[in-house]
Amino acid sequence: MQIILDHVTHTYQPGSPFQATAIRDVSLEIRPGEFLALIGHTGSGKSTLAQHINGLLKPTEGRVLLDGQDIHEKGFNKKEVRRAVGLVFQYPEHQLFEESVEKDVAFGPKNLGLSEAEIKERVREALEKVGLSDQSIAEKSPFELSGGQMRRVAVAGVLAMRPEILVLDEPAAGLDPQSREDMLQLISELHRQGNTVVMISHSMDDVARFATRAVVMEKGGIAMEGAPEEIFRHAERLEKMGLDVPSVCKLGMLLREKGLAFPPDIFREDQAYDALTALWKGGKAHGAE
Amino acid sequence: MALSNITLGQYYPADSAVHKLDPRVKIVLLIAVIVAIFLARNLLAFLPVIAFLALAARLSKVPVKLMLKGLKPLRFILILTFVLNLFFLQGETPLLDLGFAVIKKESLITAVHYSLRLILLVLASSLLTLTTAPVTLTDGLERLLSPLRVIHFPAHELAMMMTIALRFIPTLLEEADKIMKAQTARGADFESGNLIARAKAMVPLLVPLFVSAFRRAGDLAMAMEARCYHGGEGRTRLRVLRCEKRDYYACAAVALLIICVVLCGKIY
After folding, report:
1. Separation of CA B268 from chain center
2. pLDDT, tens digit, for every residue of A74-106?
3. Strand A165-169 and strand B102-104: pairing?
4. I need a labelling partner for A193 at 20 to 30 A (CA). Which of A106, B123, B169, B244 fits?
5. Which residue from B5, B178, B203 is facing A13, i.e. has the nearest CB?
């Protein structure tokens, strides 16, 4: 399953005094199996872009292609895209509405018109994936759960549709550290199982840790694109855009300022650990001389 | 999405004399203009009203297109008023024989009169809402109603409630749009099916919307209390409303309008 955005422009409320172009002439291919991170300042058009991937927004100009077919062409069944691309909005727990967790997760599959047994199976599977397989939770009202659990139920609601491409808009925002880590592990696990993941994130540490490719957006256009290592090499440019770099990068910069030989292209914690160990061992050897 | 083109509180920001008028004056003058419209006894008497509104619209710098847009939701009522008056009113002078009905001169005049009255009423009111920010409007309303406090009329509380409601309309619309999108992403369908199916489809939208509205209300109440809000007693304001020269000019213009309307009614 492959999605291509072809010169997509989106203008909100065109023709009114509140007209605003959120994304301008964006072309992007979402490759099967990748973990794509969308980075950008608030208002750079990330969320608008994400909503084009499953056809929620219609481009003002340009096309969105699912396996080569224009999804906004007449006669194209939108449910096809909705099934293939699962979109998890920011603070998805705000969209829970059913009287029980089970029923809420079943909402998506039900809309797909699946059989009772199939729905049941999918709900069980989705809840298990997000780590809420306990039957007592499944029967609870979603409004009785903790914030982190509610978020997971909401994600399960999308997973139950078995999407091949999963688009997540800041899935870890506003969670406590433990729930945050759980959520990221869950997404990483889904990616390992073969799902294509597109994640909007403000945390460069998460991008460095998980993404296989990153796209930096600025003022509605794509400013940079490439592997995270390539992107983070341009720390200054990112900072000029008001964006952060991974904390390991910052640590590296500080260490290099102090004259230590910390390699410049290290972005992840595990790499940093190795580099620091090497530095420390080298330093010790040096001091023993 | 369908919700994005609803514009409640159709304020059109611009720098004009009409915008700068004291909201209290504007509200009172709107009532006066409405009275003038009802005083107009014949078509001729509408002329000064039309001239006045045209002048005011021109001064306000609001695009004509935007002003006329306010009439769009009323088009069915307008057509209905016109047609009903045209065909069912008693008249003496036949004007046109359509075969199934005869159009009389008197009924034509009345039909035009009523439709025109409706149009002018809507235009006059939208001129107020187009040139006054909703919050300013409630501010003016509060001051106008404040003498009623003597009879324990909660003017301040009412204005505060209206301000809060107005403030949260865009927020809730945005929220509704977001939830609608989220449920659409899960395959929900808000746009097809019969009436019952559509009403049922609203549940996944309305429940989260209510939950969030209550949550917001709770947060807001807490935030207001944290800043020692305790009602209108002894509260001072950031922007004190003051009548200026242009407000008196506007009053004079409307007084003149009423005189013209009455005179036109008499002459004809």
Report:
1. 32
2. 888 888 888 899 999 999 999 899 999 999 999
3. unpaired
4. A106
5. B5
